[in-house]
Amino acid sequence: MKQKIVAGNWKMNTTPSEGTGLVASISRGLQERDDSVRVMVFPPLTHQAVVSPKCGQRIELGAQDCSQHPHGAYTGEVSAAMLKDCGCRLVIIGHSERRMYHGEDQEILSGKIAQALKSGLEIIFCVGEQESVRMQGEQAAWKHVQAQLELLTAFDKSLASSLIVAYEPIWAIGTGKTARPEDASWMCSNIDRWLEENLGAAGKDVPVLYGGSCNAKNAKELFAQPGVCGGLIGGASLKAEDFLQIIDSF
Ligand code: PGA
């Protein structure tokens, strides 16, 4: 059975005190709701220690990235073990902004996944194609996504129990150009099949999220699509009201 998930990727937004307020508002809103949806927030690293105690039982804390190294002379880096000790349960790996602006290739991403697994963090692994690839058609987009998924096959199949995949077409991120619900569904369903074929029986339960200009207005239609288990939300996760409305969209 696949879980329903709404995850807020705050990116480089809010100060720690603003973030604490945002988590408190989301938490208040969740008191009136059942726990059928897993709710996660991914604040910047400076927020982790202060936000963690405010998350309570209902909100799961995650980080937007971790190092591919366990420890050592890597100025500016933060390890998966440090995140775990701060109260983090999850980490996003392979977000397109990390791939693009920080040159994170398959080898680096493999190292990050290995560290996250070793530290007991769950992983949201992001995949998605550029606009130029999408223009070549859905098969080209799938080929691109499939190549990104390939690195998961180097790990033991038990990886599946710590894995969530987010399909985020790059042209939809922060642009207001949301993927058509049927396209999101087609891609998420392909990913579903790939996970089952490559990660065995446990791959069947790996949730697949959609991300890219998902908001309070379009979440309902997107989440109703076969293959879509929820969303990785950027901009619309920064307002408690919008984020709660997205949680209500199932
Ligand atoms: P967006 O970002 O919702 O602002 O498009 C999604 C993401 O990058 O995770």
Q: What descriptors fit this protein?
A:
8 strands, binds 2-phosphoglycolic acid, 250 residues, 8-stranded parallel beta barrel, alpha/beta
Description of the molecule:
It is a single chain. The protein has about 250 residues and is of the alpha/beta class. It is about 40% helix and about 15% strand. The chain has ten helices and eight strands. It has helices at about 15-30, 50-55, 80-85, 95-100, 105-120, 130-135, 140-150, 180-200, 220-225, 240-245; strands at about 5-10, 35-40, 60-65, 90-95, 120-125, 165, 210, 230-235. Strands 1-2-3-4-5-6-7-8 form an eight-stranded parallel barrel, surrounded by six helices. Helix 8 links the parallel strand 6 and strand 7 (about 210). Helix 1 packs parallel to helix 2 (about 50-55). The longest helix is centred in the last third of the chain and has 19 residues, at about 180-200. It is globular, with a radius of gyration of 17 Å. It starts with a strand and ends with a helix. The mean pLDDT is about 95. The structure holds 2-phosphoglycolic acid (PGA). 2-phosphoglycolic acid (PGA) binds near residues 174, 232 and 236.
